[in-house]
UniProtKB/TrEMBL annotation:
UniProt-listed InterPro entries: AAA+_ATPase, P-loop_NTPase, Signal_recog_part_SRP54_M_sf, Signal_recog_particl_SRP54_hlx, Signal_recog_particle_SRP54_M, SRP, SRP54, SRP54_GTPase_dom
GO CC field: signal recognition particle
Pfam family, one: SRP54
Protein name: Signal recognition particle protein
Primary localization class, coarse: cytoplasm
Reactions that this protein is recorded to catalyse: GTP + H2O = GDP + phosphate + H(+)
Family annotation (Gene3D superfamilies): P-loop containing nucleotide triphosphate hydrolases, Signal recognition particle SRP54, nucleotide-binding domain, Signal recognition particle, SRP54 subunit, M-domain
Compartment(s) of residence: Cytoplasm
Biological processes per GO annotation: SRP-dependent cotranslational protein targeting to membrane
Keyword GTP-binding among UniProt keywords: yes
Self-association state and partner proteins as the record states: Part of the signal recognition particle protein translocation system, which is composed of SRP and FtsY.
EC code: 3.6.5.4
Length: 443
């Protein structure tokens, strides 16, 4: 899914690799590439343009964290904007009927888009995950084969199908079906309708009338994602007439380029609710914009890495620390602070494993999650005065600290030595990111 787009985006970010900071020039260059990648993935031109404009603004306005590389930051911004483009949060499906009546879900879409298949998938899902008792209704009165197809689907998922092969009045069929549902205690009615190969007035009229007559809780528009921009145009035409509630994108298992998924939401301002990822009845997924953005970028791990760093890294604190280091005033409180900051970022091995390429290399390496435990115990056994003035920690104080922390004198001596080295090294390279140094020192 979206492989080409993923590759192209990844290449765009390479422009920023090795760049020390985000500038007008390198951002413009990167985004030119990103826009081309989106257009090649059949994303609507206007959508692609406004997307890159937003990303540019965000990238230039962002306070660049010293803990994060420009290329990583860009991945994160693009990721968040992709998710936003597709709707931000996952949309809900209204499956609770009104006062004693079943919930009604009306399917719309062109012939071959996957309406019948999706009706079956949805029925199965509601039955299994939501413990509902759905009824499928065949309202495609033009093709006898359509009724048969829905019956096969119903049988496969163990859901009853209501049909009236000799009746051509879809409103009547739907109303009868709703009565049937009430009498048989079916709490969700899924109405499969007729599609045409292209949008035509008669079909639109019919489904519009049907919608008015049954007043559905959800009107869903089903569309084949392989059709790219056509999918978006069809969505717009259906939405103008039906004002539907959500989109179902089918055939995402094919080599679809992604244009439909990325443009539909902006063009019709309706969320994508589910995706179809195969012909089998299990191949249905709730659409999560965030997860889709992860998949498109194939770099979800970098995104979490940047998020955690953004949460934990305090630019102000970093500056204060840098001053202290320059004056050789770095003490054990600062040392401890740095350790806490690193620890808050999570299990270090997990964190490192998030960096693409690193994961595999460190898989077998033994990084102890409790690497800091001994160090923390020793520092905790120092008095506040000792922590602020490491130079006063003489041999007798060291013996007391060892006893207090349950460690050996050797351990305390080693830490003191490491601390001194760290201090010297920090003074030498004050320009370097301080948390990175604490990391080095603790290693
Ligand atoms: P309808 O005319 O809108 O009812 O469309 P159908 O449900 O008959 O689907 C048309 C074709 O697309 C059938 O061959 C389905 O098996 C296939 N199809 C539907 N959904 C998916 C999907 O998510 N992935 C794939 N690969 N095929 C699908």
């Amino acid at each position: 899914m979206f492989e080409n787009l993923s590759d192209r985006l990844e290449r765009s970010f390479k422009i920023l690799k090795g760049e020390g900071k985000i500038t007008e020039i390198n951002v413009a260059e990167t985004l030119k590439d990103v826009r081309r990648a989106l257009l090649d993935a059949d994303v609507n031109y206007k959508v692609a343009k406004s997307f890159t404009d937003t990303v540019k603004q965000k990238a230039l306005g962002m306070n660049v964290l010293t803990a994060v590389k420009p290329s990583q930051l860009m991945v994160k911004i693009v990721h968040d904007e992709l998710a936003e483009l597709m709707g931000g949060k996952a949309a809900e499906l209204k499956i609770e009927g009104r006062a004693g009546a079943p919930a009604i879900i009306l399917m719309s879409g062109l012939q071959g888009s996957g309406k019948t298949t999706f009706s079956g998938k949805l029925a199965k899902m509601l039955k299994e995950r939501n413990h509902k008792k759905p009824l499928l209704v065949a309202c495609d009165v033009y093709r006898p084969a359509a009724i048969e197809q829905l019956k096969v689907v119903g049988e496969t998922v163990g859901v009853p199908v209501y049909s009236e092969p000799d009746n051509k009045n879809v409103v009547e069929i739907a109303n009868h079906a709703i009565q049937e549902a009430k009498s048989k205690a079916n709490d969700v009615v899924i109405i499969d309708t007729a599609g045409r190969l292209a949008v035509d007035e008669e079909m639109m009229q019919e489904i519009e009338t049907l919608k008015k007559a049954v007043n559905p809780n959800e009107t869903l528009f089903v569309v084949d994602s392989m059709t790219g921009q056509d999918a978006v145009n069809t969505a717009k035409e259906f939405n103008d007439r039906l004002d539907f509630d959500g989109v179902i994108l089918t055939k995402l298992d094919g080599d679809t380029r992604g244009g439909a998924a990325l443009s539909i939401r902006t063009v019709v301002t309706k969320p994508i609710k589910f995706v179809g990822t195969g012909e089998k009845m299990e191949a249905i997924d709730v659409f999560y914009p965030e997860r889709m953005a992860d998949r498109i970028l194939g770099m979800g791990d970098i995104v979490s890495l940047v998020e955690r760093a953004q949460q934990q890294f305090d630019e102000e604190e970093a500056k204060k620390l840098e001053k202290k280091i320059r004056k050789n005033k770095f003490d054990f409180d600062d040392f401890m602070g740095q350790i806490q900051q690193i620890k808050k970022m999570g299990n270090i091995k997990d964190l490192a494993a998030m960096i693409p390429g690193v994961g595999k290399q460190i898989k077998d390496l033994d990084i102890d999650d409790n690497a800091f435990k001994g160090i923390e115990a020793i520092i905790n056994s120092m008095t506040p005065k000792e922590r602020a003035n490491p130079d006063i920690i003489n041999p007798s104080r060291r013996r007391r600290i060892a006893a207090g922390s349950g460690t050996k004198l050797d351990d305390v001596n080693r830490l003191m030595k490491q601390f001194e080295q760290t201090r010297k090294m920090m003074k030498m390279v004050t320009g370097l990111n301080s948390s990175k140094m604490a990391q080095m020192a603790a290693a």
